[in-house]
Write a structure and sequence with these properties.
Elements lengths: L1 H9 L9 H9 L7 H18 L1 H18 L3 H6 L2 H36 L17 H8 L2 H27 L1 H5 L6 H41 L4 H12 L2 H22 L5 E4 L4 E6 L9 E7 L1 H12 L4 E3 L1 H10 L11 H16 L1
Parallel strand pairs: 1-4
Antiparallel strand pairs: 1-2, 2-3
Helix pairs in contact: 3-6, 3-10, 4-10, 8-10
């Protein structure tokens, strides 16, 4: 029977959605939904859209630079024999940076923005911590030849083949335009080449964007499935976060017992105990130095009332029967509180009776 119970425990299915606490813990460990393909596709598309918007600036600038370079070709040998080549190399580097930095800035901003949209702000060092299982050669060998690796390989081949088809088919459709580039000016050639390259890139980026959307949706579904919990895991998490209900019940029981003990210790110091006579018992003490009105120091019902009356009898505390007053005090005044003004007269009569008995 024990083996059957253990088998049922270990084979319990994960049928419950992840709790907010488990999702927070997974996020802190770096287990988040993020598609690199989506960030790459959007950044790729954004860069070439920026290049399209800056096409006149880039084409004119590059043509001007290449024209200047071509004019320097006859003097290249002489240039490298002198110190001018350093200036030439520095000028070439600055020109490349001048046209490349705006595009790199667009790629950086879009990449950060896409990561933030997918993940939000997250800083964790959990993913950087070294793990021994990651350097296990046997486990690495299994991962290389696993079904998951095979699926990823097939996906990569299919994606590369589709991109190659998109590029080749677009170039073939514009082959007549490419053939006339040998007969026109360089500036016109660069314009035609740019239009063809931009067309290829836009179509490839659009394809990657569509693939990335499906990839992100799949990873989101896979992450939700991986984070699913069993009913026992949810119970264990509740115990850890809220505390064991049994332990909390024991603590409350001890607190009640401690409060009851303190209450019973105050009964011998009371001036009078007012009873129902069987169901309620309320101990009252009046100290004019501490309070302007009598204070309820103990009260109880049924068995607690019997204990209060027993302790009062043992310590010679007067017990007065007054059913309406006992019921009202029990329901309206808490332990440690002074009696309300509307009960002053009734309680005063009881105290006067008690004081008269004490003097007698």
């Amino acid at each position: 029977m024990i083996r059957q119970f253990d088998l049922q425990l270990f084979t319990e299915e994960k049928t419950e959605s992840a709790t907010p606490k488990k999702m927070r813990d997974a996020r802190e460990k770096g287990q988040v939904v993020q598609s690199k393909e989506l960030s790459t596709a959007v950044a790729f598309l954004s860069v070439f859209l920026a290049m399209g918007a800056m096409s006149d600036y880039l084409i004119n600038g590059m043509v001007g630079y290449f024209t200047m370079t071509m004019n320097l070709i006859p003097d290249v040998g002489q240039m490298f024999e002198s110190e001018d080549y350093k200036l030439y190399m520095a000028d070439m580097l600055m020109t490349i940076l001048k046209y490349a930095l705006p595009l790199l800035g667009v790629a950086l901003v879009v990449g950060v923005l896409m990561s933030y949209i997918q993940v939000g702000f997250l800083f964790t060092t959990e993913t950087l911590m070294p793990k021994l299982e990651k350097i296990n050669p046997m486990k690495g060998f299994k991962n290389i030849f696993s079904m998951r690796s095979l699926v990823e390989l097939v996906k990569s081949i299919a994606k590369a083949s589709t991109l190659l088809y998109i590029a080749i088919s677009y170039v073939l459709d514009h082959l007549p335009e490419l053939l006339i580039t040998f007969e026109i000016e360089p500036i016109q050639t660069m314009g035609i080449m740019w239009d063809i390259i931009l067309g290829v890139v836009m179509r490839c980026a659009l394809f990657l964007f569509i693939v990335a959307i499906f990839d992100y949706a799949y990873k989101r579904w896979k992450n939700s499935k991986d984070l699913m919990m069993t009913k026992q895991e949810i119970k264990d998490e509740y115990k850890q976060s809220e505390g064991d209900p049994k332990l909390k019940a024991k603590i409350k029981e001890k607190q009640r017992a401690f409060a009851m003990s303190r209450m019973m210790q105050s009964v011998p110091e009371a001036d009078v105990v007012i009873t129902n006579p069987t169901h309620f018992a309320i101990a009252i003490k009046y100290d004019s130095d501490k309070s302007d009105a009598p204070v309820v120091t103990a009260k109880g019902q049924d068995l607690v009332a019997m204990n209060i009356k027993r302790i009062a009898t043992e310590n010679a505390v007067p017990i007065v029967e007054n059913k309406p007053l006992a019921q009202t005090l029990f329901r309206t005044v808490e332990i440690g509180q002074a009696i309300p003004p509307d009960l002053y007269e009734a309680v005063a009569e009881v105290l006067a009776y008690v004081y008269k008995l004490n003097r007698a």
